[in-house]
Every structure is written in structure tokens, then in C-alpha cells.
UniProtKB/TrEMBL annotation:
Residues 5-260 form the Thiolase N-terminal domain. SUPFAM superfamilies: Thiolase-like. NCBIfam families: AcCoA-C-Actrans, PRK06504.1. It comes from Actimicrobium antarcticum. Keywords: Acyltransferase, Transferase. InterPro entries: Thiolase, Thiolase-like, Thiolase_C, Thiolase_CS, Thiolase_N. Belongs to the thiolase-like superfamily. Thiolase family. It comes from the Bacteria. This is Acetyl-CoA C-acetyltransferase.
Length: 391
């Protein structure tokens, strides 16, 4: 079977809700990433076999196959198809897995895996909320409720369940959140994100500002432990607050995946080899714990130990997720989310998978390290795991 290689990876800087990317139509924002991947590789866009686009809230401006629409808004020719997929927060990580499977099978040679989410213009849960409002049904069917008779699946309740199960106090979560901001601040000031970020025009609802958007807007450069600890809890008896959870975010990201034939056709050198891909289903009630068993299974399948991995990206949907993951896997905390995570940088849902991969790949190159592992919790109790080897 052929190998799968990453030859280009890029992302926008994250934009806050109502912030510097809020004026961008998500189709056009995604097209900026497609154009950037082509430009960075200096390749003929007609050689791209497919574009696979992750997007969670596929309604409004993100409806009607946002992946294909992004192709048509980009420099890519009409001959390049595009499709949109939803594996909740892991949507573009799954897009990467589908791209890898396509080139490894030999049915395709060059595939772009990407993701986009404008959480300003298409709010989270908009599809199900519109359906309920217009009496068009609800995702919780009778059979589903019979199997899971409790309340509707909730990521917020799941986060609290994980915090309680692993003994994670609010103070521990707030400290982790503060550290995430500090890592992101250092990475920004040290220029660690410079090569991975695609500069796009800052554009609010009022129009273009005349500036390029190059810095993740969610980073709180003035954050203190006290300011984070002072944010109101989501549940009175809980430990989760908006400050120790991921930020609502607008953004787009993508990677180009090829096999050996693709390398020759494009005339480019590989940045990394995809060493392992897998996905695992888990309890949809606690929901966010899946990265733990998924990581352990992935390492076993890959013939690796946790200490063989040089850097980890575990999505910071809520602080208890990476904290529980560290506790259960025994991973070195110094190798985790070394440039900060979604608590500081934002979590643009469908774009987060290839966003994290872009950051992981660049961090490995900057540090001269070999193996990186990415995983993230996903709605419905799932987790993708990707292990790459830097070349």
C-alpha cells in the first residue's frame, strides 16, 4: 500500500465571535486556505483530485456543500470536486483521514483536507435549533432516547462529569487555562506561528479594516490567574467556566496530502508521513472522554509507547479533557499543546482538526522532533487519532 504524506499545511489566525474575521463569508474564507496551499506548494491546481472539507454547522452560509462552494470560490479549476463532512469537532481531522485513505489506496494522488467554521455567522447548533423552531424534528429519536434515557447529550455536562471522575478541581482547570494563554503568548511573541498562518484581510461586519489578520484574536495577553478564576461558572455546583473552556472562533485551515505518485507529479518534498490514523466510538453521555481509549489503542496499533511521541495536540474543548488525558496516559505535560490550545487560540469547530495538525507539524519542524500525535473529543462520544512522522 502507498504511503500518505503531508506536503503543505496552513491556517488562518483565529477570530473572535464578532471580531476580525466576522465579515468573511465562510466559503470565501475557506477558499483563501485552498489558494494558500496551492501557492505554498507552487503546484498546478488542476492536479488536485478532491477537496474534503470539515464543517459542523452546515446551515445558512455553510449549507449546500460548503466544500464544493469553497473550490468554486478559489483558484482551483471547476474540474476539482469538493465534499463536506461532519464528525463534529473532529470533522477536518476526519477529512485528513479520508484524504490519507484515498492516496494510500491509490484511487487518488493529491487531496486537500480542510475545514472551515464561522461561528459568528453560523452559530453553534444552528441546524438543530432551526429544525426544532420550525417543528421539523429533533436529532434525539425514540430509539436513541430508549437506549440513553437521560437528558439530551451535552458537552457541558460531559465536561463536568470528566472533572468529577478524574478529581479535577476548578483551581486545577483555571491554572491549566492560564498556562494555555501563556504558551500561546510566548509562541506568538517568538514568531512560532508565522509560517503556519495565512494572512487574510481583517474584515468585520462593517467591512475591511485595511489590516491583515495575523494574530489569534482570542489570546488574552493580560490574563491573570485571578481574572480567569473570577469568571462565572456555567453550573452553580460545577467547575467549568467560559475561561477554562475553548473559545468560540471563526477560522479555516487545511493540509495537502499526497502519495508517491503525487510527490512526483507535484515535484515537491514531503514535510511529514502519516504514520497512523484511527477513530473510536465511546460513551456519548460523558462524551468527551474518548481521546483516552482512542490514544491508547492507536499507540498499540502503531507499535509505539507514549514516551515515543515527541509532541501532542489534544484539543482543549474544556480544560478537563487534556487534564484527564494526561492523567490517564501518563504523557509528559511539557510535550502537550506546546503553543497553547483552544482555550487561548479558539476552537473553530470544523476547522480545528487540520488547524491542530498544522500547528503540530510546524512545532515538530521548529524543534527538530520526529513523532507527533493529535486527538480530539467529538460530539456523540468519538475521537480521531493521527500520528505523523516529520521528515
Amino acid at each position: 500500500m502507498a504511503e500518505a504524506y503531508i506536503v503543505a499545511a496552513a491556517r488562518t489566525a483565529g477570530g473572535r465571535r464578532g471580531g476580525r474575521l466576522s465579515g468573511w463569508h465562510p466559503v470565501d474564507l475557506a477558499a483563501q486556505i485552498l489558494d494558500a496551499l496551492v501557492a505554498r506548494g507552487g503546484i498546478d491546481p488542476a492536479l488536485i483530485d478532491d477537496v474534503i472539507m470539515g464543517c459542523v454547522s452546515q446551515a445558512g452560509e455553510q449549507s449546500t456543500n460548503v466544500g464544493r462552494n469553497a473550490v468554486l470560490a478559489s483558484c482551483l479549476p471547476e474540474s476539482v470536486p469538493g465534499t463536506s463532512i461532519d464528525r463534529q469537532c473532529g470533522s477536518s481531522q476526519q477529512a485528513l483521514h479520508f484524504a490519507a485513505q484515498a492516496v494510500m489506496s491509490g484511487t487518488m494522488d493529491v487531496v486537500i483536507a480542510a475545514g472551515v467554521e464561522s461561528m459568528t455567522r453560523v452559530p453553534m447548533n444552528m441546524p438543530s435549533q432551526l429544525a426544532r423552531k420550525n417543528d421539523l424534528g429533533y436529532y434525539m429519536s425514540d430509539a436513541l432516547r430508549a437506549r440513553y434515557p437521560g437528558p439530551d447529550f451535552s458537552q457541558f455536562i460531559g465536561a463536568e462529569m470528566i472533572a468529577k471522575k478524574y478529581g479535577l478541581s476548578r483551581e486545577m482547570q483555571d491554572r491549566y487555562a492560564y498556562d494555555s494563554h501563556q504558551r500561546a503568548i510566548r509562541a506568538t511573541r517568538d514568531g512560532r506561528f508565522a509560517d503556519e498562518i495565512v494572512g487574510v484581510a481583517a474584515r468585520t461586519a462593517a467591512g475591511a479594516t485595511g489590516e491583515l489578520h495575523l494574530v489569534d484574536e482570542g489570546i488574552r495577553f493580560d490574563a491573570t490567574p485571578e481574572s480567569i478564576g473570577g469568571v462565572k461558572l456555567l453550573f452553580e455546583e460545577g467547575s467549568i467556566s467560559a475561561a477554562n473552556a475553548s473559545q468560540v472562533c471563526d477560522g479555516a485551515s487545511g493540509v495537502m496530502v499526497v502519495n508517491e505518485r503525487g510527490l512526483k507529479a507535484l515535484g515537491v518534498a514531503p514535510l511529514a508521513r502519516i504514520h497512523h490514523i484511527s477513530v473510536l466510538g465511546h460513551d456519548p453521555v460523558i462524551m468527551l472522554e474518548a481521546p483516552i481509549p482512542a490514544t491508547l489503542r492507536a499507540l498499540s496499533k502503531a507499535g509505539l509507547q507514549i514516551d515515543d511521541i515527541d509532541l501532542f495536540e489534544v484539543n482543549e474543548a474544556f480544560a478537563p479533557v487534556p487534564l484527564a488525558w494526561l492523567q490517564a496516559t501518563g504523557a509528559d505535560p511539557a510535550r502537550l499543546n506546546v503553543h497553547g490550545g483552544a482555550i487561548a487560540l479558539g476552537h473553530p469547530l470544523g476547522a480545528s482538526g487540520t488547524k491542530l495538525m498544522t500547528t503540530l507539524l510546524h512545532a515538530l519542524r521548529q524543534r527538530g522532533k520526529r513523532y507527533g500525535l493529535q486527538t480530539m473529543c467529538e460530539g456523540g462520544g468519538m475521537a480521531n487519532v493521527t500520528i505523523i512522522e516529520r521528515l
